[in-house]
Design a protein that fits this description.
alpha+beta, 9-stranded mixed beta sheet, globular
């Protein structure tokens, strides 16, 4: 399956086919228009269609062609940022609601897969949070108490991870969490898409939404979505579920920040490693799961080595470190079959932003800030947004409100935005190379031309492709990503393919072509 997130291919994209409808070519009307056909957009469309709403889904690439195809598909109600941190940032009630919502999301995926007969390898299994070698185990004692206060009952502390194939001698004590889950995400998305279409929903791919106007009294309350091809969708409500919202210029992008995360998928002999979810206590942490792959071997999927998007270009080294870590912890690990990366939006307070878009019309909604838990946060978005659009109360609404004030995350907010401000000094620096002759085939580099910066890519045939290196969102200078063959913005995570076509917001236009003069 072709995906738009970069050059690398995930194990999911290599092993599943997802239906790909055509582009929108004429104006249309719907109860709800959903922009983005990933986990959040498809789940919202499915649930609204089951409520009898007419839905239109737009995506500028294929179905699930963005970051949802680059997940490792952990389904966990143990929060990545820990329940200790959830209590600090959101209070005891907030931590309980976070637990309840992620637990409900796993159950909803399980129910949908069962009731709709979606063969997506869903299964329940244990998860293990283990102390990294040389790290103290005190934080486990704090976390188990916080998790229990949040409502988690199936958690216990053990001296070591008691799973076949895991090298317990290179790790410390652990917490075991029962009733976690995993699945094949693209098989699930394919099933959701078929169900949406069965229930009358319409999905249009290769259709970029370029402008969203919320409803007002002058427009009789209808929202309007314009597309690059000229067709317009009018709707009672609009949901923007595009990893990060392109219809919000500044506000949301000061509250969340983009990180690049890396994944390897390696062969292990069949039944040599026990099925479980694994996470360690390092920062950034490692996350591991197993996937059935063939009759004679399984796929061990290992992720981690995160960094701020656009601020490093050493993907091969990070994959090598993941592989070395994996061989240390899972001695049965054999050759690596897949290497890929993905983008994670990290909110300053650890939870997604789901609800009405701040400073917008009341019928414009967003879902963003996956925080490394995209599959459950995306499902929470479907449940919560459906309730909001159907005018039903939802106990999670305040917790996930995009307009919420994260007072206790002030330090994180300040640190991340100071980092963004520092990226603008790239305007003052020289280029990556001094001449185009230094750029090899299949690679790119930023060059200085007078007072400006130019993004130069040399294709496999040796031809040069040049465009402005200035991100059209807020003017940062993009950097070359040699692993994914993309231009990545170090400020807010906009990404463009090698020739400058936008593939990820918040930018919603391509890198500008150069003035031929």
């Amino acid at each position: 399956m072709k995906i738009d997130g970069g050059q690398s291919v995930s194990s999911w994209a290599a092993t599943a086919e997802v239906p790909q409808p055509g582009a929108l070519t004429a104006d249309t009307r719907a109860d709800v228009c959903i922009v983005g056909a990933g986990i959040a957009g498809l789940t919202t469309a499915y649930l609204l269609a089951r409520e009898g709403k007419s839905v239109v889904v737009l995506d500028d690439g294929p179905i699930a062609g963005g970051e949802s195809a680059r997940t490792t598909a952990h389904l966990a109600n143990e929060i990545d940022d820990t329940y200790v941190e959830m209590e600090r940032l959101h209070g005891a009630d907030g931590a309980r609601l976070a637990h309840d919502s992620h637990t409900a999301a796993i159950s909803r995926i399980e129910t949908i897969a069962r009731e709709e007969n979606i063969d997506c390898d869903f299964e329940r299994l244990d998860g293990y949070l283990f102390v990294a070698q040389g790290e103290p185990s005190d934080e486990l004692d704090e976390e188990i108490e916080a998790a229990r206060r949040a409502g988690m009952t199936g958690v216990e502390k053990l001296d070591a991870v008691p799973v076949q194939g895991f090298a317990a001698d290179v790790a410390g004590a652990c917490l075991r969490f029962s009733e976690q889950g995993q699945f094949h995400p693209l098989k699930y998305f394919a099933g959701l898409a078929r169900c949406i279409q069965r229930d009358g929903g319409r999905i249009f791919t290769q259709t970029r939404a370029t402008k969203i106007e919320g409803g007002s009294s002058e427009s009789s309350g209808l929202a309007r979505v314009e597309t690059a091809g000229g067709a317009v969708v009018t709707a009672d409500a609009v949901v923007v579920a595009t990893n990060t919202p392109f219809n919000d210029r500044v506000t949301m992008h000061t509250k969340q920040h983009p990180y690049r995360t890396y994944v390897v998928g390696a062969r292990v002999p069949k039944n040599s490693v026990g099925k479980a979810l694994y996470w360690d206590t390092l920062d950034p942490y490692h996350y591991v799961r197993l996937q059935d792959f063939s009759d004679d071997h399984d796929l061990l999927i290992i992720g981690g080595e995160d960094h701020k998007t656009g601020q490093e270009d050493d993907g091969d080294e990070r994959h090598a470190r993941l592989e070395a870590w994996g061989r240390q912890h899972f001695p049965a690990m054999q050759e690596v079959e897949f290497r890929w990366s993905g983008q994670v939006m990290e909110p300053v307070d650890g939870l997604a932003y789901i609800g009405r878009n701040p400073l917008d019309a009341p019928n414009v909604f967003i879902a963003t800030g996956d925080s490394g838990m995209g599959m459950t946060h995306g499902t929470i978005a479907g449940i919560l947004l459906t309730d909001l659009i159907m005018s039903r109360d939802n106990a999670w609404a305040e917790l996930y409100d995009p307009a919420r004030k994260s007072v206790k995350a002030a330090a994180e907010y300040a640190g991340e935005n100071l980092n963004v401000a520092a990226q603008y000094t790239d305007w003052l620096k020289g280029g990556d190379v001094g001449s185009v002759e230094e750029i090899t085939a299949g690679e790119g580099a930023v060059m200085r031309r007078g007072l400006g910066k130019v993004a130069v890519y040399r294709d496999a045939a040796g031809a040069l492709h040049e465009c402005s290196a200035v991100c059209p969102h807020l003017g940062c200078i993009v950097g070359w990503n040699s692993l994914e063959k993309s231009w990545d913005c170090p400020c807010h995570g906009s990404r463009f393919d090698a020739t400058g076509r936008v593939v990820n917001g918040p930018a919603n236009t391509d890198l500008s072509p150069l003035d031929e003069k």
